[in-house]
Amino acid sequence: MSAFIKMKGWISLLPSFSFTGVIEIAILAALIYIILLWIKNTKAWQLLKGILIIILFTAFAVFFRLTTIVWLIERLSTAAIIAIVVIFQPELRKALEQLGSRNLISQFRGLDTRQNTHINEELIAACSTMSEHKTGALIVIEQTQSLEEIEKTGIYVDGIVTAALLINIFEKNTPLHDGAVVISHDRVTSATCYLPLSDAEISKAYGTRHRAALGISENSDAITLVVSEETGRISVASEGKLYRIREPEELLKYLPKEEKEGEERKSIFSRIFSKEKKKEQS
């Protein structure tokens, strides 16, 4: 009985729980998840590891009462906060730009980034032909993150994605062959675009096109196809990594999933509810 009374006393010490509290917890959980996901997909992940080491070292100093070290940490804490803001400035700016992008909003409206059935076939056919003729190419496929800033650096095209169009764009000595092509919303939106170059160490067998493809994959979730002008080899850059393709058909593994004809596009919320209905029926 005494144990029950103690437990009742502990419960009474807990703050009151309301519907607004549940909403706040859900919002905070979603924000923490989004922030952690953002950190993981950017260079900030490596910097975060360093910050965690510093925090652990501070806890160690406090626990063992290393007064001199604790005093130094306290004096440097203000400068450290400013330094963190400066270090994370590119990532923070990128996150704020993506917050209002049309692609972020479209995820909640149910407009997914899957491509029409014919587009992947056209991309594979174009890369295969350009590989045979050793025609250099750089094709950037937009995903959830907007590439409007990249599109602005090139020449507006707004054409249907076909193998013939892509081959003609990258044909040597043509006005649009130099630079990258951007594909957005199933359209060739822009050509001769400039891409950020990666600072990562890559094989000397790769050229400037590959470094540019790797650079855009580090700064966005875009998928970039590269055809080497020297060797005719096809490569894919995605999520900060470069993959060599042996056969053009292997591109299907890296290209966005195709949308089946007549398939209804569902929002995130409708997918969740449909899963719940299936569970109830089973």
TrEMBL record:
Enzyme class, broadest EC rank: transferase
UniProt catalytic activity: 2 ATP = 3',3'-c-di-AMP + 2 diphosphate
Q: Which domain of life is it from?
A: Bacteria
Give the signal peptide as a residue range, or say none if absent.
none
Q: Cite the EC number.
A: 2.7.7.85
Q: Where exactly are the transmembrane stretches of this chain?
A: 17-39, 51-73
| All residue ranges annotated as the DAC domain in the record | 89-248
Q: Which UniProt keywords apply?
A: ATP-binding, Cell membrane, Membrane, Nucleotide-binding, Nucleotidyltransferase, Transferase, Transmembrane, Transmembrane helix
The alphabetized list of GO BP terms reads: cAMP biosynthetic process
Which Gene Ontology terms cover its molecular function?
Answer: adenylate cyclase activity; ATP binding; diadenylate cyclase activity
Assembly: Probably a homodimer.
Function description? Catalyzes the condensation of 2 ATP molecules into cyclic di-AMP (c-di-AMP), a second messenger used to regulate differing processes in different bacteria.
Xref: PANTHER family: DIADENYLATE CYCLASE
Give the family this protein belongs to, as stated in its UniProt record. Answer: Belongs to the adenylate cyclase family. DacA/CdaA subfamily.
**HAMAP family given in the database record:** DacA
Q: Report what the protein is called.
A: Diadenylate cyclase
Native source species:
Oribacterium parvum ACB1
What gene codes for this chain? dacA
